[in-house]
Amino acid sequence: MKVLQFPLARITFGFILGIIAAFYLKPNPQIVFFLLLISLLGLGISYFLAKKNFSSRLFFGIITYFLSFFIGVTTQIIHTDYFRKDNYSHFKTIFEKPHLIDVTLREKLKSSTFNDRYIAIVNHIDQSESSGRIIVNIRKDSLSHVFEIGNILQIKTVLNENSPPNNPNQFDYSKYLENKQIYAQIYADIDEINISATIEKNIWYYTSKLRSTIIQNLEKSNFHKTELNVAIALILGQQQDISPEIIRDYQYAGAVHILSVSGLHIGFILLFVTFILKPLPNTKRGSFIKLLIILASLSLFGIIAGLAPSVLRSVTMFSFVAIGNHLRKSVNIYHTLLVSIFIILLFEPSFLFDVGFQLSYIALFFIIWLQPLLSSLWLPKNKVLKYIWDILTVSFAAQIGTLPLSIYYFHQFPGLFFITNLVIIPLLSFIMVLGVLVMVLAAFGYVPFFLAKLLEWSIYYMDKIINSIASLEQFIIQNISFNYYLLICSYLLIVTVIIWLKKPNFNKLIIVIFSIIILQIAHIKNHYNIQNQKELVVFNIKKNTLITERNGNHVTLYANDSILKIARKNTVLNSYLVGNFSVLETKKRIQNTVFFNGKKILIVDSSGIYPINSKPDILLLTQSPKINLERLFQSVQPKIVVADASNYKTIQKYWKATCNKQKIPFHATGEKGFYKVD
Question: If we measure between CA atoms, which residue out of 232, 281, 270 comes closest to residue 439?
Answer without folding.
Answer: 232
